[in-house]
Design brief:
Chain B: Required for the export of heme to the periplasm for the biogenesis of c-type cytochromes. The complex is a heterodimer of chains A (223) and B (251). Chain A is mostly helical and 223 residues long. Chain A contains ten helices and no strands. The radius of gyration of chain A is 18 Å and the shape is elongated. Chain B has 251 residues and is mainly alpha-helical. Chain B has one domain. The chains are: A mainly alpha (223), B mainly alpha (251).
Chain lengths: 223, 251
């Protein structure tokens, strides 16, 4: 069972590294969106610093969402998904491997890029650990929930906008906790409470979302 | 336990016949309860001490908000039934309930905004309840959009069932997180006067209009479901006979 998991993880990693440009796209999007905000709200450093928790989280959330649009598309088109469904291994485990691989190479990269952008927005250095931990805990939830939407819309021609409509309302708790943790540490308050809540959301998403993703994929394939 | 009552729901024909019998009763109950509740509430209930007559919109606002939330619960239950027992009627109920729920949600938001202007001095504040209602509206939009986007009827219904269930699991989380966000970002500047302090001649009409809204919702849902059942089963002989009877009666 775990053997299949690692095999799939390696396969996904290999596929992703065949097209490094696609890996970079969410990161560039993240950086560009962050760069848009100072242009839109003005370069005052105090204002940017106060807005930075929200800006960073909204940009990261949109970057994850956009990267998820094509998550299952190529597997759907070349028939791999059907093979997964008929294979003796539980589909929820296989999709978990797929999402974990996706997160390792796009979500984790976002997390690693975020301190640089945070410092450019004027977030004090002592908040950076909280930013990293909150994104580390939050981006897997974003990936897993987004994968539910991606599974439901994989068979549709223009699923991108629909995916956003389906999934963005579900992202709200993550956004609130993430920005809340960052806001608290910006004001010099402890952020452990929000981070623990975020960790429980992560645990919930890891345990429940794969089943919903698997159900969604089965429906999309059965169509 | 005897499950035959449950299995009967699997038959569209049985549902069509039974709902045809219930519909007049439900419709009459809805009209009576709404007429009594709204007339009592809007015209005869005593004015509130501070808000005077402007509070009367409560008799529209609260039932609509109640129903908007119950409707999502109904959709989630229908989703479970549809996914576990593969019952077609649950699919029909889920998809037909979504637009009604969205409208009720919209009505409660708009009536809340109209009520907010005289009492709070603003149409909209980012209060926890208002925000979670707005998110609920977006969740309804998601279900409706997904149902419209998938052309195959059966998979559209199943996809909506999965989405409704995921949404239902998330609703408590969203609700608590929004409340948490609200206490974090802004203090409660406005509080609606406590419900517990309402006197009986104010809450009794409210209760009646809530019941009236429930009956109204059931009537509209059954009507929509009956139409959809006819559409789905259009090739069955009983549907052809029924349509011929109905169109013959109209001519």
């Amino acid at each position: 069972m775990s053997n299949v998991f690692t095999l799939l993880l390696v396969r996904e990693a290999r596929l992703l590294f065949r097209r490094p440009a696609e890996l970079a796209n969410p990161l560039v999007f993240f950086a560009v969106v962050i760069a848009l905000f100072p242009l839109a709200v003005g370069p005052e450093s105090q204002q940017l610093r106060n807005l930075s928790p929200g800006l960073l989280w909204v940009a990261a959330l949109l970057a994850v969402l956009l990267s998820l649009d094509g998550l299952f598309r190529s597997d759907f088109e070349d028939g791999s998904l059907e093979q997964w469904v008929v294979s003796p291994h539980p589909l929820s485990l296989l999709v978990l491997a797929k999402v974990v691989a996706h997160w390792l190479f796009s979500g984790l990269a976002l997390v690693l890029l975020s301190p640089l952008l945070a410092l450019m927005l004027g977030l004090p250095a002592h908040c950076v650990p909280v930013l990293l931990v909150s994104l580390l805990l939050g981006t897997p939830v974003l990936s897993l929930l987004g994968a539910v939407g991606a599974a439901l819309t994989v068979g549709l021609k223009r699923g991108g906008l629909l995916l956003a409509l389906l999934i963005l309302p579900l992202y709200i708790p993550v956004l609130i906790l993430g920005t809340g943790a960052l806001q608290a540490s910006l004001q010099g308050l402890p952020a452990a409470g929000q981070l623990l809540w975020m960790a429980s959301l992560t645990a919930l998403a890891v345990t429940l979302a794969p089943f919903a993703i698997a159900a969604g994929l089965k429906i999309s394939i059965g169509e | 336990m005897n499950w035959t009552w449950f299995h009967k729901w699997g038959s569209p024909k049985w549902f069509y016949e039974m709902s045809g019998r219930w519909l007049p009763w439900l419709g009459v109950a809805a009209i009576l309860l709404l007429a009594v509740g709204l007339a009592w509430g809007l015209a005869f209930a005593p004015p509130e001490k501070y808000q005077l007559d402007s509070y009367r919109i409560i008799y529209i606002h609260v039932p609509a908000a109640f129903l908007a939330q119950s409707c999502y619960l109904l959709m989630a239950i229908a989703g479970v039934v549809s996914l576990v027992w593969k019952m077609k009627l649950a699919d029909v109920a889920l998809q037909q309930a979504a637009p009604i729920g969205a409208w009720l949600c919209f009505v409660s938001l708009v009536s809340g905004a109209i009520w907010g202007k005289p009492t709070w001095g603003t149409y909209w504040i980012w209060d926890a309840r208002l925000t979670s209602m707005l998110i609920l509206l977006f969740l309804y939009f998601g279900v409706i959009a997904l149902g419209n986007a998938i052309s195959n009827r059966d998979s559209a219904a199943k996809a909506c069932a999965v989405l409704a269930l995921v949404g239902a699991v998330n609703i408590p989380i969203i609700k608590y997180s929004v409340e948490f966000w609200n206490t974090l970002h802004q203090p409660a500047t406005f509080t609606v006067t406590g419900k517990a302090s309402m006197s009986a001649d104010m809450w009794l009409p409210l209760l009646i209009s809530v019941l009236g809204f429930y009956c109204f919702f059931a009537t509209v849902l059954l009507m929509r479901m009956r139409l959809e059942v006819l559409r789905r089963e259009s090739r069955a002989s009983w549907v052809k006979a029924e349509v011929a009877r109905l169109s013959g009666g109209n001519r």
